[in-house]
């Protein structure tokens, strides 16, 4: 039984497509903008350079998203996949930036992308390391890692002076309840676009309460053309090694995200699909480096949008890429979206990210319950949660250890893969994996087309 409202290759009506594409953009925009802002703030870059990094990140993310969704020859997984700048590269970028500046970051990112490009041709072999047990752990860990992000948004933003103020939590709860109501009781497009409609209602409430800050709109330029290689590039060996390691970690995380995407879209993701998707990640990161942006990777949070709404059309997400491209060319558009208060994002984000977690739990529940699987699940989730909940655990470890295990997703995935390799019984499980039917997506309800 297929519960999707729109399949991967379906083309919804234009108005529906626009609303659904905007929904994906709202889910991704904050993450895309955050990476260049963090890098710029830590390195104390001039304001104009930070703005240029943000614009390049939006433009590059949009172009690579379109290619990933539509496909160009052997490049692109052809699934509803949003691409954006990744926090997996922030640590390496900052360490490189302190010594070699932005040219060193971009040059190292360009050279390091070769790791991902070459690695993409070995994805059929890497896919064998992700049987159902490991995939279930990774999908669950993605949800567990994203939910705290939504909680911080709901509270007003990590580090905000009014963090966890009752007004923030109240707005987030209002948006959450609104989205739940629209999904559960809405029909057709109302249910499918529940996230963007709920956020719009929350935004209107914040406007009425005077909680929307338009200062970013006033400062934003109307139109800005990209300026490739405006910073120049340098290629420090230490920087290339650091970025290369970040790309290795990203391959693991991206593989997990693609597997979660397969679950949400009812698609059996095989090695050849991973090859096209990871190749697009690598070539896309090389392209955006030339454009003047930090490296990109697949966004896990948008899997939650698909799981929640049942809209798996890659053409919808390709339009999201076009919206991101326009936001990069017209910074004022992105600035308007940035005015959405954090609690509004938090209320919707909690629902979306929890859907990924619920999908992971459903996958875990469908597995055979035996000692081997229990060990893999318990130890890998425990290790992943350890570094997510207490990142200071790695503070005194060598930089290479922090780079590899700094993410709960990568830690959980690596531990699960290693345990699956060393514990007895792997051969039988690998055989079962070959005949496994495509997993069914977890939806709030079976949504009927309008």
Structure description:
Helix content is 70%, strand content 1%. With 450 residues, the chain is mainly α. It has one domain (14-432). A two-stranded antiparallel sheet has the order 1-2. The longest helix is centred in the N-terminal third of the chain and has 30 residues, at 14-43. The radius of gyration is 21 Å and the shape is globular. This is Purine permease. Residues 428-450 are annotated as: Disordered. It comes from Pseudoduganella albidiflava.
Any chance you could write out the topology, listing elements then pairs?
Elements: H1 14-43, H2 47-70, E1 83-85, H3 90-119, H4 123-127, H5 132-154, H6 166-185, H7 189-192, H8 194-208, H9 215-219, H10 237-265, H11 271-291, E2 296-298, H12 301-309, H13 314-329, H14 331-338, H15 342-365, H16 371-389, H17 399-405, H18 408-422, H19 426-434
Antiparallel strand pairs: 1-2
Membrane topology: Multi-pass membrane protein
Main location: membrane
Protein name: Purine permease
